[in-house]
Amino acid sequence: MKILVVGGSGLLGRHVLDELRLRGHETTAVARTAREGVDRVLDVAKASHEELRELLSGHDGLVFAGGMDDRVVGKGPVEPRLYAGNVTPVAALMRAAREAGCTRAAVLASYYTYFDRVHPEWGLAAKHPYVRSRLEQARVARETAGPGLPVAMIEVPFVFGVASGRVPQWSVPVVKWVRSSAPLFAPPGGSAATSARGVGVVTADALEQASGADVPVVEENLRWNDMLGRMARAAGRPRPVRGAPAGVLRAMFRLGGRLNALTGKRPGLTVEHMDSLLLRELFVDPSHPRALDEEIRETATAG
């Protein structure tokens, strides 16, 4: 197959490309800026339909590995920025892919949509603009693609690993913390996790199967204290991880929400409702179970 990967210079995009090439598929890497390994420089969010149709011509499939992260913060309404980053380009790409004759597609999405699906009582979509943008992304992608172009939504949790100088965005402040001499504290709960390579493997599988499913990609479930402890050991600064009382954290989230309201900041994940995420066990049955020790070491020692 010949697969176009939008966001091919990013951490996950690079691993998707590597896995596809390892399996003998032909690939085209697209990114907004010129970088080693990028075949086409194009901002798909600003490209015309004709440009996208030409870009996809001759390809069997499409991977969208771009989009806007859940940590986006800015003044004013965040919803339009999330929609512009996560929904609009996917809709435009799926329309062009359908017209160009593509037969399969995958979108690198978020595991928050998995939890909104299996735990609607948590109200994640109502509380968090970022979750709403990812749900809308999936709906619009599939409606635009139509029945002849199955779109797999690869639901990505916390990611460990590196690629060409890229690290997971969430890890930057955490790695700085575990490398310091500051005490470590962790809330109750934890999260599903995977490696960047694991995302590449699951995405390549979905494309080869022409899957149109929602696919959580998980290799290990980690409690927050275990995650921080393993990262600190990998960084060469092992020390105990103390518990952070849930009540204190909830009070801090409420205060953070009030401060954001005063300053006009609007994050993708609403701070006053972060207890609906960080204080839970966001665990998923692993699709490819294995320990992430090597990828934790790579993440904690990068840079």
Brief overview:
This protein has 13 helices and 15 strands. The chain is an alpha/beta fold and 303 residues long. The protein has a seven-stranded parallel β-sheet, with helices on both faces.
Layout of helices and strands:
Blueprint: E1 2-6, H1 11-22, E2 26-31, E3 40-41, H2 49-56, E4 61-64, E5 73-75, H3 79-86, H4 88-100, E6 104-110, H5 112-118, H6 124-127, H7 129-145, E7 151-156, E8 158-160, H8 171-179, E9 184-186, E10 190-195, H9 196-208, E11 214-216, E12 220-223, H10 224-234, E13 241-243, H11 246-263, E14 265-267, H12 275-278, E15 281-282, H13 293-301
Parallel strand pairs: 1-2, 1-4, 2-3, 4-6, 6-7, 7-11, 8-10, 9-13, 10-15
Antiparallel strand pairs: 5-14, 10-12
Protein name: Nucleoside-diphosphate-sugar epimerase
Organism: Amycolatopsis jiangsuensis
GO molecular function: aldehyde dehydrogenase (NAD+) activity
Salient structural properties:
NAD(P)-bd_dom_sf; 13 helices; alpha/beta; NAD(P)-bd_dom; single chain; globular; Nucleoside-diphosphate-sugar epimerase; 15 strands; aldehyde dehydrogenase (NAD+) activity; NAD(P)-dependent_oxidoreduct; 303 residues
Description:
The strands form four sheets. This protein has a seven-stranded parallel sheet with strand order 3-2-1-4-6-7-11, with helices on both faces. Strands 8, 10, 12 and 15 form a four-stranded mixed sheet that branches. The longest helix has 18 residues, at 246-263. It has helices at 11-22, 49-56, 79-86, 88-100, 112-118, 124-127, 129-145, 171-179, 196-208, 224-234, 246-263, 275-278, 293-301, and strands spanning 2-6, 26-31, 40-41, 61-64, 73-75, 104-110, 151-156, 158-160, 184-186, 190-195, 214-216, 220-223, 241-243, 265-267, 281-282. The protein starts with a strand and ends with a helix. The mean pLDDT is 93. The chain has one domain (2-170, 193-222, 284-301): Rossmann fold (3-Layer(aba) Sandwich). The chain is of the alpha/beta class and 303 residues long. Helix 1 (11-22) crosses helix 9 (196-208) and helix 3 packs parallel to helix 7 (129-145). The chain is 44% helix and 20% strand. It is globular, with a radius of gyration of 19 Å. Residues 7-144 form the NAD(P)-binding domain. It comes from Amycolatopsis jiangsuensis. It holds the Pfam family NAD_binding_10.
